Amino acid sequence: MLACIKSVACVGLQSFPVDVEVDVAEKGFPSFNIVGLPDKAVGEARERVRTALVNCGFAFPQKKITINLAPADLPKEGSAYDLPIAIGILVANGDIQTGESGIFFGELSLDSSLRHTKGALLLAIFAKKVGVRRIFVPIMSANEAAVVAGVEVYPVRGLKDLVEHLRGVKLLIPLKTIAIKDLIENATPDFDMEEIVGQEMAKRALTIAAAGGHNILMSGPPGSGKTMLSRALPSVMPTLTEEETMEVTRIYSSAGLMQPGEAIIRRRPFRSPHHSTSLAGLIGGGSHPVPGEVSLAHLGVLFLDEMAEFPRSVLEAMRQPMEDGKVEISRAAGRVTYPASFQLVAAVNPCPCGYLDHPTHECKCTIRDIEKYKRRISGPILDRIDLHINVPAVDAEKIIGTVSKGESSMVIRERVMKARGIQSRRFESTGIFCNAQMKNKQVKEFCKLDSGGVRILRLSMEKFDLSARAYFRVLKVARTIADLEGSEDIKSVHLAEALQYRERVF
Q: pTM (2 decimals)?
């Protein structure tokens, strides 16, 4: 007897329909074969499904069983086909009858229970797109799928529960749609801005970076507070919007980084890879491409501490995602595209020993050592960073607490939220979330200068030899500074401050 069960294949952030065709033949030697370009995990479904059916109380048919995962030219990977294969065998063998038009998805344990399976959100989005009403997913992955309205998500604890539902003995109850806005949280900061003594210029630059989504580079001696400032950045960043939350959660779902029972990513990502991270770890890749750190930091912060210690080849690979906001990975097994619109926060020392131009510590590096150290980060990478600031050593008087505290993160965050609100209204229905994401067309439209601003910018380009890319990035930063002040026009003072942050510090 022949049965056909609906499932999906997730390739990157895209989902494709898969028909799990099951044939239980009366003639032929007993066997169990899976065809249709299965990978190792799919091939091992034979043993998981066989044992799960037996432990669920069914007699496994001693017949010739052929499983075809159609279309046959699409590579299949992962363990999500266990459930549709098991249901297909039961239907083809005549143990159950089902008229369900839903999609089945999930990994089976040997005791017939269902495990948390990656990609449930992608499945729900696909089901809504193609008009499928019902999906059956593991109970630990159900919340992830339930955030998509218009799809009935049936949480399945085990194979036996699903069989009883299909037989009409004990029906499963679909989950109610989970409201995303009720789950989004503000980030709990490791540090509050008021805890950081001094460094007023760095705090100002971080405020601008948070308000416009700009990249920032901090250079300073060890112990000056670069890492602490970076860790405090999430405390002043705005909360994710519902649209942004779905964007980020899709990536984490495809990567299998969602925790069992978790519905969405509630906070802006903050990724801090070690400088020994490989090219594939940072950008993404592998024989079956998976997202890297730049994609996991999408719409959040990618913090590169000791940026100069990263291999040059790894840093150079960030050029394209920093410019385009996406990563295209091509492999023999396929080609996938991941979004990578991240906010880069980099920290470096001014020299190998870290004490160049320090007021009290002597720098022991030679000129050759310093030049060699600074060549580790190329000019094209530095040109893609909007804000360059020095973070000097903090005076002892400020450290011992004789100076009053600065603004708290809550106060700064209110200003940032107002600026982001202005940007949201400005870029409504364009798919752009902040000033840093503007293309040249939007820069020309929304960053117009008066005659004084044009004169200042022309002189600065001649004096500092700014590239065309730097020209547009200066305008974006100036637009953010004007938004922080609630100004509709970019004034000369806004442009002057933006130009101040283009001076190279490394």
A: 0.91
